[in-house]
Give the backbone structure.
Amino acid sequence: MHEFKYLNNHLYCERVKVEDVARKHGTPLYLYSYHTLMDHFLKLKTAFKAIEPLICFSVKANSNLALLRAMVDKGAGLDIVSGGELYRALKAGCAPEKIVYASVGKTDEEIEEAIKRNILFFNVESVPELENINRIAAEQERVVNVAIRINPDVEPKTHKFISTGKLTNKFGIDFKTAEKIFKQCYDYSNVRLNGVHIHIGSQITVADPFVAAITKVVKFIEKLKKENIHLQYLNIGGGLGIIYDKETPQTAQKFAVKVLPLLAKTGLKIIMEPGRFIVGNAGILVTKVLYIKSTPLKKFVIVDAGMNDLIRPALYSAYHQILPLKKAEARGRLEKVDVVGPICESGDFLAKDRLMPKLKAGDYLAVMGSGAYGFSMSSNYNSRRRAAEVLVSKDKARVVRKREDYKDLARNERLPLFL
Ligand code: PLP
């Protein structure tokens, strides 16, 4: 469900005509629907109401302060993976006791800051990291909460780059080592080892990998209980898939039916870390056609958004539906084209061999489902300014991040004296 719909052949976001925003603020442009965002967050919250989990939105999916604030205002916590995301989480007004921190490579500086700020807990991904957190906490004369991230070795049935729960992935700790850590918890006197965490991958559209991973981890929790090791938190991560193309992902309700019984029987406080599920279909990337180029073998629609704006097609061969802002039925038959950006890489494409209505320079297009891992993965490659972000609520469109200017590109650079 999302609030991007055609009305009289023009694409609208809620009650705002997308083309009006594109003309006013320029392209490429990220456009978000506040009510779609809220709807997804509240659907998850409602589906899991029986156990009142803490839903920590995964900041990496979309780190815009306005979107974070919108969710925090509705009770969300935040899942972070860096000092920068901690900074954003606090700036968005998130209570530190609702922040959980994962990442295989937390630096001393990041750990120190997170401890100082009193976050809820660290999701720890290795023994050396655990030792380091224990050491830093001791220096600060603190005892901090830690959940061990378990690598449950399940196949998440998703793209290999976004699979994280197999033992060949760099994430988490295997069950045997984790058990050893819990049994040796007295070695870590400045750490309260009171949780377990899993996150098996992203864009997972079926329930079985979640059920398999949670079943394994629940068994593990029961085993620990028998050893008189009692936990407080079970963090089941994120990973719920959405519709980009022809996927038929489970709804929040169907997911809850499958996993709620397993979670409820643990009696632990459940944490969830959804990203894509909440924000993926709440955002689009708006772009303008610059040129139509025909070669002996291909037709290219060259647009002003490149892989620096949306890297998912280049990185994961991800599919995004591309719609004209003005419905073009009247312009006749569909034709097969590559929709490509202006960047000097052959990997710079938004769609390959895609059937599109006949387009011309100046037409606007919407790259659908770009709310997650869109702007947050964007870069300045080719010295391109990062796009503006606009948030729509009902009939109002507000800029929530202005387009970068050329000064932003060179802001931190210095010419050494010898030049
Ligand atoms: N939690 C962790 C630890 C992650 O690494 C990720 C994404 O990679 C997420 C949550 C969010 O995943 P998704 O956007 O698929 O829900």
Q: What stands out?
A: Residues 58, 60-61, 79, 102, 199, 202, 237-240, 273-277, 372 surround pyridoxal-5'-phosphate (CB under 6 Å).
